[in-house]
From TrEMBL:
Keywords, ordered alphabetically: Acyltransferase, Lipid A biosynthesis, Lipid biosynthesis, Lipid metabolism, Repeat, Transferase
Recorded metabolic or biological pathway in which this protein acts: Bacterial outer membrane biogenesis; LPS lipid A biosynthesis
PROSITE patterns per record: HEXAPEP_TRANSFERASES (PS00101)
Coiled coil location: none
Segment forming the signal sequence: none
Complex and partners: Homotrimer.
GO CC annotations, alphabetized: membrane
Tree of life domain: Bacteria
Function summary: Catalyzes the N-acylation of UDP-3-O-acylglucosamine using 3-hydroxyacyl-ACP as the acyl donor. Is involved in the biosynthesis of lipid A, a phosphorylated glycolipid that anchors the lipopolysaccharide to the outer membrane of the cell.
Species the sequence originates in: Tannerella sp. oral taxon BU063 isolate Cell 6/7/9
Protein name: UDP-3-O-acylglucosamine N-acyltransferase
Length: 344
């Protein structure tokens, strides 16, 4: 498909600077901008690329002020990154989607699948499960008994949703995600470990995205809950009885221990480890590879292991680099003190 700058500006309610007839038929990164494509500038670190890019149209923020001439047509919008997301979503919606139920799929007689969806090769849907309208269940997905899935949710290949779990509308579960596996619960007994049955479930609310090979354990009792709008990257572990607040985002390889409650609108970097039975306040930002072992107040910005306020972490990092020289200086001073003691 091909679009002009004028058509795109009308769709985004943006302002054009340059050729209104400029045409694009694809997207490219600004550092690799190709003729006939649209790119964007949202991060100031990439500004130098805009002066040499070959892309036909560049989305920029309204407050962008170029320091040199630009050959491309600029399309000004309030938020270039959000505008790009809108365009990509529009293009995705125009692509042909598979529909219907493949004859090789297994759907239990008591299960219900809503109209307008897709169930692929060898997908499995168990007894009494309810799948909403417009859902896309890709090949080899497993949906157990008594599962509920809302409208327009996508379940990619090899996703496993255990019995009794609930997934909301407009969710995306990427390949290999596991929802409702047993929580890691064992009671020490006579030198061994006795398994504690995990009788709860997982509840995923609307508009949640779960990355590839991410696992969300079912609760011992009641529910492990992923609230509306949460975005989980690949390879994340959510333990039993965890609560993740609305619109919180987590990068890859985060681990959240049992019964921890994470607030709303939190941002958690890659490889962060959260201890069990703690509370992370709303709006908290946690830097990559941090270790969290106690409660964190709302609005905090922390980093390190164990985590500390961000400014303290940076000061500590500077000091840490100086430790070898400090050690040599202290050792020299120690020897001087010993020599002075001998003279006295």
């Amino acid at each position: 498909m091909e679009f002009t700058a004028k058509q795109i500006a009308e769709f985004l309610n943006g302002t054009i600077e340059g050729d209104v007839t400029a045409k694009v038929n694809g997207f490219s990164k600004i550092e690799e901008g190709k003729p006939g494509t649209l790119t964007f500038l949202a991060n100031p670190k990439y500004e130098h690329y805009i002066y040499g890019t070959k892309a036909a149209i560049v989305l920029v923020n309204d407050d962008f002020h170029p320091s040199a001439p630009i050959e491309s047509t600029l399309l000004r919008v309030p938020n270039a990154y959000a505008a790009l997301a809108s365009l990509l979503h529009f293009v995705e919606q125009t692509q042909t989607q598979k529909e219907g139920i493949d004859p090789s799929a297994f759907i239990a007689p008591s299960a219900r699948v809503g109209a307008g969806g897709y169930v692929g090769h060898f997908a499995y849907i168990g007894e009494h499960s309810v799948i909403g309208r417009g859902c896309r269940i890709y090949p080899h997905a497993y949906i157990g008994d008594n599962v509920q899935i809302g409208d327009d949710t996508i379940v990619y290949p090899h996703v496993t949703i255990y019995n009794g779990c609930v997934v909301g509308s407009r969710c995306i579960l990427h390949a290999g995600a596991v929802v409702g596996s047993d929580g890691f619960g064992f009671a020490p007994e006579n030198g061994t470990y006795r398994k504690i049955p995990q009788l709860g479930n997982v509840v995923i609310e609307d508009e949640v995205e779960v990355g590839a090979n991410t696992t969300i354990d079912r609760a011992v009792m009641e529910s492990t809950t992923i609230h509306r709008g949460v975005k989980l990257d690949n390879l994340i572990q959510i333990a039993h009885n965890v609560q993740i607040g609305e619109n919180t985002v987590m990068a890859s390889q985060v681990g959240v221990s049992g019964s921890t409650k994470v607030g709303r609108h939190c941002m958690i970097g890659g490889q962060v480890g959260l201890g069990g039975h703690i509370h992370i306040g709303d709006g908290t930002q946690i830097g990559a590879q941090s270790g969290i072992i106690s409660n964190i107040d709302a609005g905090s910005r922390v980093m390190g292991s164990p985590a500390m306020p961000l400014k303290t972490f940076f000061r500590s990092s500077i000091t840490l680099r100086k430790l070898p020289d400090m050690y040599l200086e202290i050792d020299r001073l120690r020897k001087e003190v010993e020599e002075l003691k001998k003279r006295l």
